């Protein structure tokens, strides 16, 4: 009777633990569940030295940008090239984000300026013809590296590479040429640089990629690292990251390639309960046999 009571208590404890842990686990993305599912090459003619990638939720397609600022290229999620738009006047484009209704924001690293454009396949757009906002002074090759649009509030999050690293958030008004960008937190993430950022829908947490440390981080809005993914075995020149509505993560590098990461399904709480109850029963039988 004592052994059966212990088994019941263990099973009940397992169920309680799952009930407590479930919501907390669901709040985060948990990059530990992710693994490489596919890789596809980008066209060197329009995506040379690809350094930024974003997801267009209206068309469910991807857009990539090279750091020479020659083109913005549209791709299917399986890697098929759908079209491109030529850019002129840019020379150090490192940041790209989609803001809805066919509009994108491009950022130049050294100038730390951002530009708003509407994508048109086959067309050409000059930097001087676009609405722009300066987010900071001109710096060396350590400036604006990533930008992400937060659909929940219409604000932006940006990262500065280093010297010092910076994570900022706020509004950008392209019509008036003004912004309210301010520090979100002081980065202390254990990485050598910040290469890109992506706001995670729902939680508001951030995906932050470090090119020099080859690590993808899930970070809270207060700067706490929640989970991470080591990228060092795949590429040392990756600089861009985005995520789609189904949780698929896409990263792009200068080779140029796109790496697709998918998450393993999370077992239902009942599965955990049965597994733990089974382990408890096995332990009870082992003790009984030993007795």
Structure, briefly:
With 291 residues, the chain is α+β, with helices and mostly antiparallel strands. 18% of the residues lie in helices and 43% in strands.
The count of helical stretches stands at 3
In the CATH classification, which architecture applies? 6 Propeller
Written as H for each helix and E for each strand, in order along the chain, the element string is HEHEEEEEEEEEEEEEEEEEEEEEEH
Give average pLDDT, whole number: 88
Structural class: alpha+beta
**Quick one: CATH class?**
Mainly Beta
- Write the CATH homologous superfamily: TolB, C-terminal domain
Report Rg.
Answer: 23 Å
Q: What's the count of strands?
A: 23
Signal peptide: 1-26
Main location: membrane
Organism: Aquincola tertiaricarbonis
Pfam family, one: PEP-CTERM
Description:
The protein is globular. It has one domain (29-287): TolB, C-terminal domain (Neuraminidase, 6 Propeller), CATH 2.120.10. The longest helix has 26 residues, at 2-27. The chain is built from 3 helices and 23 strands. It has a 5-stranded mixed sheet, with no helix packed on it. A 4-stranded antiparallel sheet has the order 1-23-22-21, with no helix packed on it. With 291 residues, it is α+β, with helices and mostly antiparallel strands. It starts with a helix and ends with a helix. It comes from Aquincola tertiaricarbonis. Residues 265-288 form the Ice-binding protein C-terminal domain. This is SdiA-regulated domain-containing protein. Belongs to the YjiK family.
Keywords:
18% helix; disordered N terminus; alpha+beta; 23 strands; 4-stranded antiparallel beta sheet; Neuraminidase; 291 residues; 3 helices; 5-stranded mixed beta sheet
């Amino acid at each position: 009777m004592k052994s059966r009571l212990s088994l019941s208590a263990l099973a009940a404890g397992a169920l309680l633990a799952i009930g407590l842990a479930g919501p907390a686990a669901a709040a985060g993305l948990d990059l530990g569940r992710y693994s490489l599912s596919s890789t596809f090459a980008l066209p060197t003619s329009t995506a040379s030295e690809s350094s930024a990638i974003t997801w267009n939720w209206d068309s469910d397609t991807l857009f990539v940008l090279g750091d020479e600022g020659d083109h913005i290229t549209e791709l299917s999620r399986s890697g098929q090239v759908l079209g491109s738009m030529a850019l002129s006047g840019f020379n150090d484009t490192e940041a790209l984000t989609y803001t809805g209704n066919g509009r994108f924001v491009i950022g130049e690293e050294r100038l730390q300026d951002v530009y708003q454009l509407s994508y048109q396949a086959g067309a050409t757009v000059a930097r001087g013809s676009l609405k722009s906002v300066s987010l900071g002074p001109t710096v060396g090759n350590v400036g604006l590296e990533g930008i992400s649009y937060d659909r929940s509030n219409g604000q932006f999050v940006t990262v500065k590479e280093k010297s010092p690293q910076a994570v900022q958030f706020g509004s950008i008004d392209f019509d008036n040429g003004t912004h309210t960008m301010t520090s979100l937190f002081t980065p202390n993430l254990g990485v050598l640089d910040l290469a890109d950022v992506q706001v995670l829908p729902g939680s508001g947490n951030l995906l932050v990629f470090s090119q020099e440390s080859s690590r993808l981080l899930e970070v809270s809005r207060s700067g706490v690292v929640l989970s991470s993914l080591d990228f060092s075995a795949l590429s040392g020149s990756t600089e861009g990251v985005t995520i789609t509505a189904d949780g698929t993560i896409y990263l792009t590098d200068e080779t140029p390639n796109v790496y697709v990461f998918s998450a393993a399904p999370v077992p239902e709480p009942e599965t955990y309960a049965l597994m733990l109850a089974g382990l408890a029963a096995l332990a009870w039988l082992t003790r009984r046999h030993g007795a």
